[in-house]
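Quick one - inputs below.
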Amino acid sequence: MFAIYSKELRSLFLSPLAWSLMIAMQLVLGWLFLVQVEQYLELQPKLAALDNAPGVSVLVIAPLLNSAGVVIMMLVPLLTMGIFTRESGRGTLDLLFSSPVSITAIVMGKYLAVLTLLAAVLLLVALLPLSLLLGTRPDIGTLAAGLLAIALASAAYAAVGIWTSSLTQQPAVAALSSYTLLLLLWIINLTGGGANSPLQQLSLSSHFQRMLSGLVTSGDITYFLLLILTGLVLCVYRLERLRREG
Amino acid sequence: MEPLIRMTGITRFFGQFLALQDLHLELLPGEIVGLLGPNGAGKTTTMRILSGCLGASSGTVLLDGFSLSEEPLRAKRAIGYLPENPPLYPELTVDEYLCFCARLKAVVRSEIAAALDRVKTLCGLEPDGDRLIRNLSKGYQQRVGIAQAIIHNPRVIILDEPTNGLDPNQIIEIRNLIRTLGKHHGVILSTHILPEVQSVCDRVVILNRGRQVYMERLAQMNDQESGMLTIRLERSPGEAAVTELEGVIGVTALGANRFSLRLTGSCSIAGLAKQIVQRNWGLQELVPEKQNLEQIFYRLTTAGEQNG
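Output:
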């Protein structure tokens, strides 16, 4: 598994795709961050008059991390679309299948490589709100909860992306499928319903936004872990089937 | 001796299509088996099933004594597999790729460097370690594919059309390599180049439409005389005169002074030569025809087509 992990990580970092995606993300998020900070500075005189006024954590960091959650959702399927489509397209899947490694190890090796790359992405995202430490004192607890939300959401995106990449030989189809699934999960709560309606429970965004507000519950964490597990199990199952049925 | 491969009753359907039917195959250590067949006969399917890349609809595969379905990881340690298209990562260098394969095949970490050197020497890749696989020619990519299959010193080597895409010199090198490997490992290779089988294999298996239609040791096959011989004469006496030779039951003229003779079972070649020399026809060439792999192949793989 470690061999697959390090090979995949090398391939990910050797391709210009990962780098260009990180640049694109940082540009967009950096701009959004500056806009938020500017708006906050305009509001500051009015806020000073209020008792118990919301601070940077609510007015700058939360919207920024919310956008980051969406931007990363746009980015991850592009990263994962090649994971298995490339292997089956080039015939290297036969190399993996004829080697003494289990399919679970193949999937986990590749998934962990993507997670490592996403850890670098998370670090880039975290640098933006952390730069506020230079001038003010944001609520570190809220920030940590927000970053945890981003980490869990990215891991879930990656699991879904890896699964869809095992379904087809065409990277574009894989990316499109994961976009569809993730977007659907993101907006499925828009039909309304109470906070406990099944659609709210199913929605990525409702769990994600609750964590951004600083509230970390075991239910939300379980949701993300279940999503990750589902993606990975489906991927292993799909590859087992591919090996058996051809 | 325990066979390295024991394939029993393998059947494989693709949907309704029967790709392999009740295939039995054994491979002994130190043996090179050639898998022959026309396109679509099931050679690649057989090899993919052997290497664990494809499941069988029924039947069992034992590799080095381990069942591929029940102990896949132990069984797969015993094999090295070169698919039809070498499974390469173009973005890696030769060394990076082979190192990855070595780790994938569970070569002990301290032995990886030695394994790399060994296969690069065997496959003639020593100067190319730092080159990107993307930039290698097809023949060199094929060599990297073979290097990958033998990096962990497997007991069984499965090669699907190993000389595909190579130039004639490289083909000779690869055949020599296969012969060398065949001394210590069991090798099974598929091809549709008949001379290749004759030059490297100990045993030949011919598949046609998913069925095994022929299996014979090549040494035995070569001993079976076909009762035919070809002669070339300096002064041709004409077809009629040749027919009058004792022991000859049929003559076909192959050219102005070459004839193909069919002999009676009791006719000795020495006696025949003596007759020709006595008649002073100027004998230049006398070649007994062995039973030819090409003839057998043609007969067996076209026979089915007439029936169905």
